[in-house]
Amino acid sequence: MSSLASSTRSVVRFGRTPRITRHLRKDRRTQLPIPHVPILTREFAPCRFQDHYHTTLADNAMYMTYIHEPGPRPPPRQIRLTYDPNDPYTKNRYNPPVGGSQLGKKPPPPSRPDNVVRLEKISIHSMQKEALASKSNLLGLIMALRTITGESYKAGGRHTAEGIQIVRGKKSVGGWIRPGVPVGVKVDLKGQAMYDFLGTLVEFVLPRLRDFQGVPLPPQSSSVNSPSAVSGVVSFGLPPAAMGLFPQIEVNLDAYPKQYGMHIHFVTNATGDRLICIMI
To answer: Which residue positions does the secretion signal occupy (predicted)?
Structure first.
């Protein structure tokens, strides 16, 4: 109590709070002030979808994907490389294994509780053709994605997330795009923000979206050794009309210059279409 009273008297004595004489440093890239202490944003409420996965879906997925193996697996077969690694003439040459790429040819990992199929991140990206003429046309798209996902630049100081990112051209296409030109926006969601976006998408957007044909999957006749068959990524697109169905946008739709379409990628730890179907 005495320390509180002394601090109060020190402020009243001068008549005002002390001035901050030390100026904040600025980031060279964004020209924004850098605070003296790191400001981090944390989860402040339990996530319903995340709890539902750990309490219900994880056990069901383990039961549906479990494959009993009678004994330990034999050691993996060592496949000979195309060139001798001890040959000095092939030291820096690309040296793939004999028989081509081994993608999709290796057996899946054994069924264990630590490798149950799960959602690792959700990637959202959208391209704006008008940004080729003026990069200011990306401001409406950035504002819309920040509203939907709740992410900002560097994601509130978290080093594990990048937040809203500007997509720039990598190659030069004659008469259309040049390297380094901003053409779109993307954001990667992980953790609680990922499950919050998934809950909003499933409960508010998809049920009210007309002519929604569901999540497309490759047909049964497709090759099981293709990268898309073993990557564990489920992708689909939403039309521009779907952006107005998000509650964050719907309450103030007039504040945005237009509605934008987007592509959504669900990245899982699965290694085949069968596990992806179970996760969906």
So the answer is: none
Q: Has residue 123 got a pLDDT over 90?
A: yes
- Close Cβ partners of 66 (under 8 Å, ≥ 6 residues apart): 111
Q: Which of 5-14, 222-231, 262-271 has the lowest mean pLDDT?
A: 5-14
E-state strands within the chain: 25-26, 33-34, 119-127, 164-168, 182-189, 233-238, 262-268
Sign of CA dihedral 171, 172, 177, 179: positive
Burial class of residue 143 in the structure, from the number of CB atoms within 10 Å of its CB (0-12 exposed, 13-18 middle, 19+ buried) = middle
Domain ranges of the chain: 79-211+226-279
Structure tokens at 86: 């001890």
pLDDT at 4 over 90: no
> Cβ of 90: how many Cβ atoms within 10 Å?
14
What's the mean pLDDT when you consider all of the chain?
81
Supply the pLDDT for residue 158.
57
pTM over 0.70: yes
CATH number of 79-211+226-279: 3.30.1440.10
Sheet bearing 233-238, strands edge to edge: 164-168, 182-189, 119-127, 262-268, 233-238
115-125: average pLDDT: 90
3-class secondary-structure state, position 277: helix
Could you tell me the pLDDT band of residue 228, with boundaries at 50, 70 and 90? Answer: low
Rounded to an integer, what distance in angstroms lies between the CA atom of residue 205 and that of residue 202?
6
Neighbours of 140 (CB within 10 A): 17
**Bridge pairing between strands 164-168 and 119-127:** unpaired
How far from 202 is each of 61, 139, 142, 208, 269, CA to CA, in Å? 20, 27, 22, 10, 21
Helices of type H across 78-214: 138-149, 192-200
